[in-house]
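Lecture 7, part B: from sequences to assemblies.

Below are the input chains for today's worked example.
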Amino acid sequence: MQHSLLPGALCAALLVPAATALADDADIAELRAELEAMRKQYETRIQQLERRLSDAERAARTAQPTARTGAVAQPMSAPLAPSPEQPTTKGASGAFGAVTAGSAFNPQISVILDGNYYQDDTDNGNGAALVGEAFTPGRGHGHAHGEDGHDHGGHAHSFAENGFNFREAELSFSATVDPYFDAAAYIAIDGDGNVELEEAYFDTRSLPYGLKVKGGKFLSDFGYANNQHPHQWDFVDQNLPYLNLLGFHGLQDTGLQLSWVPDLPFYARIGAEALQGDQEIFGATVSDEEQDELNLGSTNTGPRLFTAFAKVAPELGRNHALQLGLSYAHAEQHQEVHSHTHAVHDEHEHEDEAHEHEDEHEHEDDQGHAHNDGVTEELHQTGLGGNADLWGIDLVYKYDGGGAYGKGDFTFQTEYLRSTKDLTVRSSAHPEQIGSSRKLTTDGLYAQATYGFLPKWKAGLRYDILGLTNEVSGGRSESFGSSDRWTLDVTWNLSEFSQLRAQYAYNDILVAEDERERFSAFYVQFLMSLGTHGAHKF
Amino acid sequence: MKRRSLLLAALLATTLGVAPALALALDVVATSPSMGALVRTLASDANLTVLAGPDRNLHDLQAKPSMIRALRGADLVVAVGAELEVGWLPAASTSAANPAILPGRVGYFEAAAQVPLLDIGGSANRALGDVHPAGNPHVDLDPVRMARVAEALATRLGQLDAAGAARYRANARRFAEAVERRLPDWQARLGNAPGVVLYHRDAVYLLDRFGVPLLGTIEAVPGVPPSGRDLRKLTSELAGRQGVIVHAPYQSPRAPNKLGRDLGWPVRKLAMSPPLSADGNGYLSHIDAWVDAIAVAN
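Predicted structure of the full complex, as structure tokens:
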């Protein structure tokens, strides 16, 4: 636009003297001088305008204009950056920072959508729930606080039913708060609209000596899989030991974590956590009514759950990574209720050996009487209280195959968990048992591997087992075997932001004493990631 | 950390009346071999760790324990930047619990923040793939920009180690002069290069520098493999023309090879970065290799 002014003005100026051919030489010289002056004036103004335009464009396009003022064509003659005496002013201008697409001050936001189609061949299509409630002799029910409105007893929100399921939309927000803290919040909304705060924590960023403090509600760094959100798993569902020894959410609690990364020739990280202890399974306490009824005493003030963990990784070069971990958790208070029915003949003769464990849901039938061919079934509840310990070892190996879109990448991951509950019988239908101790030990293991067999395609195989050990001391100690499962899946990463997965599992789940369900379960899952680029954590 | 303990030792030595004759070698972590080459050129005595080899895609790495260990004791991290390492460097730096190397501190250096970027301000629409509106991050293939990055890096090293500041600056100038000496030759060889098809827009800075036309990319959108239709479209657009196809070691050779066969063009596999052990000269040889590959189509 500016360019057309100059030729236009020149044309007009030239046409005028051409028409006045009779003008004398002096007039012509004067006109020429004026024209020349005008031309120069226009040229300078146009140059100024062009410069201002390009400056404005550059400023608009770049977040850090001051870092980019160097002349590109002649870099060798460009002055050196400011001397070391003025680092702070340069820092404010952004040369120390990172070029990002993130808008200033807004937290990084992402939403992950996680839904599936599920089908199993059990009679009622409740296979996914059975997997999460596998029977072990040492398992009572001990879900926390009936009044918290979040029905962990039913687990209806967590487990897939035959057909379409929307597991959750996970909203995450993270940002650097100030020079001292980073913070993040993860909010999950399930298909029924239930909102759950998965994590909301701060993390220090300026402590010396490799120390970090994290506080708030967070997923514990116990073990390896524990701090992963469901969409980060290599399979649709959680492994058997985590699901049954820790619960759907793993060790997710409110508290404080201190960790230390020492400056060693190899990677190591050690840490400890003090947590409130609001747990579903490990370190759970029962409802107020049951505490009164079964003489279990009220829930102690927190923190009631303590963990410690250590991770070590030898140096194996750029393409291999191996990490070993050892974790321990101690719940200062653990309560559970074991219910079983006694078959009572009409002659009121006890048949002690004929008792049967009841599924925890059925204990609402607390009159406990059912008539059956002259035999009355009477529900007996035993209240147990004490503390619990959990040990975990984990091993993770990853190989970066270097192929296109993850082709050739291989991962292997295995963990062993062992839970020991040291409990005392506080109430029982058999008064002679009150005060006696019960030590309940259950363990579990999973091992899984994934391999990128084609660009963007990954196959996974998992074996998980619960109840390799089933010890109940101070009472009955029959073992009814373990629950286990083989899982195979194929994941298609269409891009970095979308995933489709098909998964088949053959389950052999102990649902009660000497009662097994063997079934196949099939999932098709989608995962969509909206917003900020996700982190590729180890 | 190592530096701090050395400082303590030096302090102790001084208080004991012993002259501190300790050279404080900087612990530097470079994300890629090209950044490592700059560090070697400027500060040959630095303890340097390069996190990724030239055969790996810097955008797709995962934060590994070994990276966290290297970052834990680092005085300076030298990244390409502009979100190229966004998937893993922030995660690894945060886990390393080393405040000195977080963005905004003297210990964080990003090449992309020191030079003007190309492809800025594109649509933030992921229907167009893994786009980065902040600008194309692959600045390290432009030797002229790298010379400028070297000067900025020399200043930064000087801020961390005042005793070596003059040496770092002199080395940066020497590197810039070496680039300048080679420029006419590169320009002459690429003067009438017919053009290049890339897999991804990862060598645009080099092409832009020497005015070599980018004839197309095999990926129709970044981060998504090409479909058969994308390839057919590219083939019909380029039929009858001359050019060369270049792809990185971590990009699938199948589509480039097919396109090369269909068009009768040479196909070259070239890394984005020089070898792991490269210094400034190694970097220049790497640019030579690229110039050779592109000029071969003449």
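Note for the exam: DSSP finds six helices and 18 strands in chain A. Keep this in mind when comparing with the next example.
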